[in-house]
Amino acid sequence: MSSTIPTVQFNLKPVYQHYTLPNTHTEVTSTTVVSTRNRGGGRRRRRPSYSSFNSTLFHLESNHVIFCKPNSVSSRTVFTRVSNGGGGGAASQQKSSNTEKKNQSSPAFGDSYVALFVRMLGLDNDPLDREQAIVGLWKYSLGGKKCIDNILQFHGCINLTISLLKSDSDSAHEAAAGLLRSISSIDLYRDVVAESGAIEEISSLLSQSSLTSEVKEQSICTLWNLSIEEKHRVKIANSDILPALIKSLEEDDIKVKEAAGGVLANLALTHSNHNIMVEAGNISKS
Fold first, then answer.
1. In the Cβ-directed half-sphere of 134, how many Cα atoms lie within 13 Å?
2. Does residue 16 register a pLDDT over 50?
3. How far apart are CA 140 and CA 122, in angstroms?
4. Alpha-helical segments (H) within the chain
5. Domain interval for residue 218
6. pTM value?
7. Given Cys at both, which of 59, 97, 178, 223 links 138, Cβ 3.0 to 4.6 Å?
């Protein structure tokens, strides 16, 4: 008996938002346009590719870690300030969780498809099937923590996602980095993302000269989330990422600039990183 793989369609509409985070000194203006483009050529079959574009204006304050949250299912970008102290982080995280619950709606496809898409990530599958699967899981992860929990109940999912950072496809790069960004926004999963080799693979990816702005944004925002933890800040600073981050400050894309600035601001909170950042040219000698 043969079986067929269900076809999943995403209906995405542009969203335009302006709002101010409650009880903080940070005003956030977010304009999001979600676009769909078709990529194809020769005998390659056409497949959907998705990009999220987020433009956010915010002000950095000293002694605070800047935390880049992923897009929610409503395509909202939330930036939460996590205190450098022990208790502030939990309070800030609780505020963002409440916001997510209030604005959460149904994901693009049912929970029953998660297992199918994770299986499609397998290394022995067709590259186009793997790409379709990672795009689907990325969009599903934007539904919030429950959706991310559903994905991570499958052992090896993070490693398979990281392996797609080596893909030849920009769409797969963007979706894999986007899923890692979503996962690393959750405190519980931040360590496992870093320990699975995400920092090293993102460093290798960012060293490529032909990356799209969308891939850079998702990749650097993953580092931004990981840099909340001091142990990950040290690891990031000691990798080959610093030159790429500094170069990203000169990008025309404001979202890439902001993400790179957020990572560098967090790295500077760790005193042991200062000499490394001075040598890299990020901090001027005084």
1. 33
2. no
3. 18
4. 88-103, 112-120, 127-141, 145-152, 157-163, 170-184, 187-195, 198-206, 213-226, 230-237, 241-248, 254-267, 274-280
5. 15-280
6. 0.64
7. 178
